[in-house]
UniProtKB/TrEMBL annotation, chain A:
KW Lyase (keyword) present: no
Lineage: Bacteria, Pseudomonadati, Pseudomonadota, Gammaproteobacteria, Oceanospirillales
The name this protein goes by in its record: Phosphate ABC transporter ATP-binding protein, PhoT family (TC 3.A.1.7.1)
Keywords: ATP-binding, Cell inner membrane, Cell membrane, Membrane, Nucleotide-binding, Phosphate transport, Translocase, Transport
PROSITE patterns given in the database record: ABC_TRANSPORTER_1 (PS00211), ABC_TRANSPORTER_2 (PS50893)
From TrEMBL, chain B:
Source organism (scientific name): Halomonas cupida
Domain of life: Bacteria
Keywords: Cell membrane, Membrane, Transmembrane, Transmembrane helix, Transport
Pfam families per the UniProt record, alphabetical: BPD_transp_1 (PF00528)
Single Gene Ontology BP annotation: phosphate ion transmembrane transport
SUPFAM superfamilies associated with the record: MetI-like
Main location: membrane
Domain ABC transmembrane type-1: 286-518
Gene Ontology molecular function: any one: phosphate transmembrane transporter activity
Name of the molecule in the record: Phosphate transport system permease protein PstA
Subcellular location: Cell inner membrane; Cell membrane
UniProtKB/TrEMBL annotation, chain C:
Database matches in Gene3D superfamilies: MetI-like
Name this polypeptide is given: Phosphate transport system permease protein
Protein source organism: Halomonas cupida
Keywords annotated in UniProt: Membrane, Transmembrane, Transmembrane helix, Transport
GO annotation (BP), single: transmembrane transport
Family: Belongs to the binding-protein-dependent transport system permease family.
Any one Gene Ontology cellular component term annotated for this protein: plasma membrane
Annotated localization: Cell membrane
Residue span, ABC transmembrane type-1 domain: 106-394
Protein origin, superkingdom: Bacteria
SUPFAM superfamilies (alphabetical): MetI-like (SSF161098)
Membrane topology recorded in Swiss-Prot or TrEMBL: Multi-pass membrane protein
Membrane-crossing residue ranges in chain numbering: 27-52, 112-135, 147-167, 173-194, 215-239, 259-278, 307-328, 375-397
Length: 289, 535, 412
């Protein structure tokens, strides 16, 4: 059913080549969906977001697999960061946002009025483009989220801080100066500190909003390595400008354009055999991003 | 160069200022220089006059053309309006002997001008100062002359000072609280006999004993009399207990003068006013100013921060919020006297009058809270400075980068936790700046206080050992109002002038220190936020 | 990856737990909202309070002011011989005919503010232009806070200096004061001319960038020179005595506490505020504009008058407005340096009485609820409305200007 309409559109270049993947579907607005077969962590259905009446996301449907890395790519202003912020309801800060559609985290509707937003955000952690450690010591930064939960002993916090810093591959660099200001760290270290801070509250999903765009190549490499190490334990969602990075790090990739999902599938397929010309144009750099 | 089709560019107009910036640029530079000069001149004037007041000036003895003698301290010389000659004003003191304390002398009439070492300058409790000679000292009937008189005089003066101190303490710590208790236990409205209450009887007895004690101390001070001689040769007898200090300025070395100067400054800072605010110290005014400012900042800080946090962090950022923000900003420009009117109408007459009816009905019609007082003054100034604190705090809050807030929220912090743990600590320097600016403004503000609670003379500070220790309903003295009062309501402005200079200098210094603190704090804040920006 | 001390990453917890923290958050938000709105209302209540208290004056059948004709507030009343504007509110209490015209007070207020602005605006604008255009950076970083300190000078001190020190002095030495005013701008130009003839090494030392510093000693010399020149000037033009000349030829009374002295003190007080805002407006003008003009060979002064000022003038205008608002409401300086006589004449050497000073003097003695009390509150309301409107206007102009600058910047 879907395939015939794709042919009509004339965009699908190799529809039959991957016909063994029974999951290829076309959504209402014509995007190619190659649904992952693993278990779903975040299930986005028909999501439309508008700021001040201006649509930022249009009727977006997407399933994000558990314990995999999913990358969102697309030209700037395509809505990939907006989508990321919708996943932990950070867009709530902006009052002029209107929303249609739903997002489910492990089967729970995150917009259910009974949901405690703070708890949702603990479970869906986020790392931002620019490292944003708080103006406190390294230790206090990592312990910040833990202390919010309350009821933890000093000893337990010490343990978790150490564990989180080790998980973020920062422990060896800072173990001697946990009481130093977090702002004394280098940019790459700061970003790993932010990741450690987020890991400390044990999220299930980690959203990464261009985590390496402000960093030098070596720091970028370290962050990418870290993402790989975290994959067995966490669902990771990565927004990136950098095509190579998406190809290197992610298992699945979604290409967004103009607030719409254009193509979604396993990273290998998307980068080597994109089904739509728009996707190909973008990943080969023929579309100005 | 000639370009075909173009007429040659006319040569630049050659004027006197060709190549330079022209006269206006120099006048602009003059504007800055003139402003700085005026500020500097003001500060230098206050400094020199304010501090010179405590320096023991040398006393001159003049012989005039008509043979008369004048003893005095030269104050100023000016051209006579009538002719080309000049005249000089001398401070001759001795109000009791000659009626006035100033004398204009034509400079040409001065035949002889000397500064003999035996001239004395006596500061007295009454009749202002004395200038002249010390003839003898009579102590308990024995008469001492010459150098011996000086020795005895100074020993005796020390004793008297100690006794005076003792008496003052006795009055302040024991007698006045007792009288207060008596007043409160039988107010003017109660009609029962003061003796009927056994408690009252006990208090009356205690009071009588204490007053006897005070009288004993007082009589212990009497007995010594100075025999003085004025320039005209008139003899005066001056009881020593009414003398504050005795100096021979012409005989003092520079070091002695420095010592005298510093003890004069100390007396000025630590004592109460005398002679209708034209002499003595300003301690109650310093205390009143500081106490009021502290109360004000305790009131203004939480409310100002609360309003700023609401405006910037909680309120919906729409047109209404923007209007309210402009409104608050503009209230900082509303004249302080209008706030005074509001304080008088709402706090004093409105709330204060109501409080009196409810809780202090027995003392009516004499008001307790229904008149200006410490509490209402602090509240009025808190309202006056509220916009300053709100604006400064808001600026601090707005400068905190969004990603710091998002970082906290992304870790599962609630809105409140984000505010208290990340945003407010980061906005702390801005809040402090706001509060310091508010304090600096409040310390210099006088007009609203005239309506809501300063007193011309309130030697009793509003903080003492008597329950409830801090008396919010009392009137208090204020440095700024002290200046106004001494300058406009004293009978002899010329006599009060040195002290006004000193008070003005003190007030300016306090305000300058506060402002400098705010400026440095803001500088520190900017550099720190520079670090934010690099993040 | 090291072992986690916890059991599992994806330990499932229901999304709607942590009721306590959530409830605390909601409660705190409600409290902040209530408190914030309360504080803001309290601050904004000032205008409402004044209006409510003043209202009975205008109600036709109010019991408070049966003896008061409203027209007496702004119309001349028969007094002695002829119609005059008089402010004699104490007669209200004695039941006599009321002379409660607010006109002389409003006149005094505006006259004082006008003189303050006449003195403050040229100083402030000149200083703003110099420090934004010519002054060296390190010097500017020092001068700005210094002028801020000038603004912090308490009014009571300025009033004291003006009323008790400067006023009597100027009354005695009118000629010196006049000569100084004339000599300062002249002397500066002479010095600038002399500087042009100096060798270039000297001219580097005496640069315009540092002019505000090295001009100070020259100004002191000029003031001293004025002392010396004044008698000559007085002899040539005014028959030896300027004061006599003013009194006989112009028919002006000369008071020690007069509008000019008052204007000087108040100008001193409002100048730093105007300076700060005007300088901000000048500095905010996008650099590209002035750079472009200078690249075409304009001097900095030409750039200023032809490019920068036309763009920045709304900012400068709003700075002057805010200064005017401050001058109108200033109380202590007027109280101490004006003589407080409710006169209505244009003589700058005579005294005046302002609305604010009248409130400060009379309100403590006017009983609450009486006509005199309400009249004074009317005066306060007038002050409040005037300053509020002026400031709002200035604020609107300023925000509009900022938006324009932002657009200019984003264009370039």
């Amino acid at each position: 059913m879907a395939r015939s309409r794709v042919n009509e559109a004339g965009e699908l270049m190799s529809a039959n080549r991957n016909s063994q993947d029974a999951d290829i579907q076309r959504t209402r607005n014509g995007a190619i969906m190659d649904f992952p077969t693993t278990e779903t962590s975040l299930d986005i259905k028909g999501l439309t977001l508008a700021y001040d009446g201006k649509q930022a996301l249009r009727d977006l449907t997407l399933r994000i697999p558990r314990h995999r890395v999913t990358a969102f790519i697309g030209p700037s202003g395509c809505g990939k960061s907006t989508l990321l912020r919708a996943l932990n309801r950070l867009h709530d800060l902006n009052e002029s946002v209107t929303r249609q559609g739903s997002i489910h985290l492990e089967g729970h509707d995150i917009h259910d009025p009974r949901v405690a937003v703070a708890e949702l955000r603990r479970r869906v952690g986020m790392v931002f483009q620019a490292p944003n450690p708080f103006p406190m010591s390294i230790y206090d930064n990592v312990a910040f989220g833990l202390r919010l939960q309350g009821g933890l002993s000093k000893r337990r916090i010490d343990d978790v801080v150490e564990w989180a810093l080790k998980s973020a591959a920062l422990w060896d660099e800072v173990k001697g100066r946990l009481r130093a200001s977090a702002w004394s760290l280098s940019g790459g270290q700061q970003q790993r500190l932010v990741i450690a801070r987020t890991l400390a509250v044990e999220p299930e999903v980690l959203l990464l909003d261009e985590p390496a765009s402000a960093l030098d190549p070596i720091s970028t490499l370290k962050i990418e390595e870290l993402i790989g190490n975290l994959k067995p334990h966490l669902t990771l969602v990565l927004v990136t400008h950098n095509m190579q990075q998406a190809a290197r790090v992610s298992d699945y990739t979604a290409f967004l354009h103009d607030g719409e999902l254009v193509e979604y599938g396993s990273t290998d397929t998307l980068f080597t055999h994109p089904r739509l010309r728009r996707t190909e144009n973008y990943i080969t750099g023929r579309m100005v991003g | 160069m000639n370009i075909p089709g173009h007429t040659a560019v006319p040569p630049a107009r050659s004027g006197r200022w060709r190549g330079g910036e022209g006269p206006w640029a120099w006048w602009c530079a003059m504007a800055v220089a003139l402003s700085l000069l005026m500020l500097g001149a003001l500060l230098v004037l206050l400094m020199s006059r304010g501090l010179a007041n405590f320096w023991p000036a040398s006393v001159h003895q003049l012989t005039l053309a008509d043979g008369s003698q004048v003893i005095g301290v030269p104050v100023e010389t000016r051209q006579r309006p009538e002719d080309a000659g000049s005249e000089r004003r001398y401070f001759t003191a001795n109000r009791d002997a000659s009626g006035g304390i100033w004398r204009w002398v034509n400079v040409e009439d001065i035949r002889q001008d000397s500064a003999p070492e035996d001239l004395v300058h006596i500061k007295r409790m009454r009749w202002s100062d004395f200038l002249g000679r010390l003839v003898a000292v009579n102590i308990d009937g024995r008469r001492f002359d010459g150098e011996l008189a000086w020795q005895r005089l100074e020993e005796r003066l020390d004793e008297i000072r100690q006794q005076r101190q003792l008496r003052r303490e006795l009055e302040a710590t024991q007698i006045i609280p007792l009288i207060r208790r008596l007043e409160s236990s039988n107010g003017p409205e109660s009609n029962h006999d003061p003796g009927s209450n056994s408690d009252d009887v006990r208090i009356h007895q205690q009071l009588a004993e204490l007053q006897q004690q005070a009288r004993d101390l007082q009589s212990g001070m009497t007995g010594a009399v100075l025999i003085l001689e004025t320039a005209e040769g008139r003899r005066l007898e001056q009881p020593l207990e009414e003398v504050d200090t005795v100096l021979r300025p012409n005989a003092m070395s520079a070091w002695q003068k420095v010592g005298r100067w510093s003890s004069g400054v100390w007396q000025y800072l630590s004592e109460g006013p005398r002679a209708a605010n034209t002499a003595g110290g300003v301690w109650p005014a310093i205390f009143g100013t500081v106490l009021m400012v502290i109360l004000m900042s305790i009131l203004v800080t939480p409310f100002g921060v609360l309003a700023a946090v609401y405006l910037n962090e909680v309120a919906h950022q729409g047109r209404l919020t923007r209007l309210v923000r402009i409104g608050v900003r503009n209230l900082a420009g509303v004249p302080s006297i209008v706030y005074g009117v509001f304080g008088l109408g709402v706090f004093v007459y409105g709330i204060g009058g109501q409080l009196d009816e409810w809780f202090f009905a027995e003392t009516l019609p004499s008001p307790t809270f229904g008149t200006g007082g410490l509490l209402w003054a602090s509240l009025t100034l808190a309202l006056l400075t509220l916009p300053v604190v709100i604006v400064a705090t808001e600026e601090g809050l707005a400068r905190i980068p969004m990603h710091q807030r998002e970082g906290a929220l992304a870790l599962g912090a609630t809105h409140l936790e984000m505010l208290t743990r990340v945003v407010l600590p980061m906005a702390m320097p801005a809040m402090l700046t706001g509060v310091i600016l508010a304090v600096a403004r409040a310390a210099g503000e006088v007009a609203p206080l005239m309506l809501v609670g300063v007193a011309k003379l309130a030697p009793q500070v509003p903080l003492d050992g008597e329950f409830p220790w801090l008396h919010l309903e009392r009137k208090f003295m204020h440095l700024g109002y002290h200046i106004y009062d001494a300058a406009f309501h004293s009978s002899d402005v010329q006599a009060a002038l040195p002290l006004i200079y000193a008070t003005a200098l003190l007030l300016v210094l306090v305000i300058l220190v506060l402002n400098l603190t705010a400026i440095f704090l803001r500088h520190y804040l900017r550099t720190r936020h520079g670090a934010f920006a690099r993040q | 990856m090291p072992d986690t001390p916890t059991s599992d990453f994806s330990a499932q917890s229901p999304l709607h737990s942590h009721r306590y923290r959530q409830r605390r958050d909601r409660l705190a938000r409600a409290l902040i909202t209530a408190g914030g709105i309360g504080v803001l209302l309290a601050v904004l209540a000032i205008g409402v309070f004044l209006a409510v208290e003043v209202l009975p004056l205008f109600l036709p059948f109010s019991s408070t002011a049966p003896e008061l004709e409203l027209s007496a507030l702004w119309q001349a009343q028969p007094y002695a011989d002829g119609l005059e504007y008089r402010w004699l509110p104490y007669r209200l209490d004695e039941g006599e005919a009321a002379y409660v015209s607010l006109v002389p007070l409003a006149w005094g207020t505006l006259e004082a503010a006008a003189w303050a602005l006449v003195l403050a605006v040229p100083l402030a604008l000149g200083a703003a232009i110099h420090s934004s255009l010519y002054m060296s950076r390190p010097l500017r970083a020092r001068i700005k806070p210094t002028l801020e300190l000038m603004e912090a000078m308490p009014g009571v001190v300025l009033g004291f200096i003006a009323g008790l020190v400067l006023g009597p002095w100027v009354e005695q030495h009118l000629a010196i004061a006049l000569t100084t005013v004339l000599l300062l701008p002249l002397g500066v130009i002479v010095l600038a001319g002399v500087r042009r003839c100096l060798p270039s090494s000297w001219r580097l030392v005496l640069s315009l960038r540092w002019a505000s510093m090295w001009l100070i000693p020259w100004l002191i010399v000029l003031v001293w020179l004025a002392h010396w020149l004044a008698p000559l000037l007085e002899g040539w033009w005014f028959g030896g005595d300027l004061r006599l000349w003013v009194e006989t030829q112009l028919g002006w009374d000369v008071e020690a506490r007069n509008a000019l002295i008052l204007g000087l003190a108040m100008g001193f007080a409002v100048m730093p505020g105007i300076y700060a805002l005007a300088e901000e407006a000048l500095v905010d003008v996008p650099r590209d504009l002035s750079d472009g003009a200078q690249a075409m060979g304009a001097t900095r002064w030409q750039t200023l008058t032809r490019v920068v000022l036309p763009v920045a003038w709304p900012g400068i205008f709003s700075a002057v407005m805010i200064g005017a608002g401050r001058a109108v409401g200033e109380t202590m300086i007027v109280l101490m340096a004006s003589g407080n006589t409710a006169l209505m004449n244009g003589n700058p050497l005579d005294g005046l009485r302002s609305l604010a000073a009248s409130i400060a003097i009379e309100l403590p003695e006017a009983g609450p609820g009486g006509t005199h009390y309400r009249l004074l509150l009317l005066a306060a309301l007038a002050l409040f409305l005037f300053t509020f409107l002026v400031n709002t206007l200035a604020e609107l102009v300023r925000t509009r200007l900022r938006r324009r600058f932002r657009m200019l910047r984003s264009d370039s």
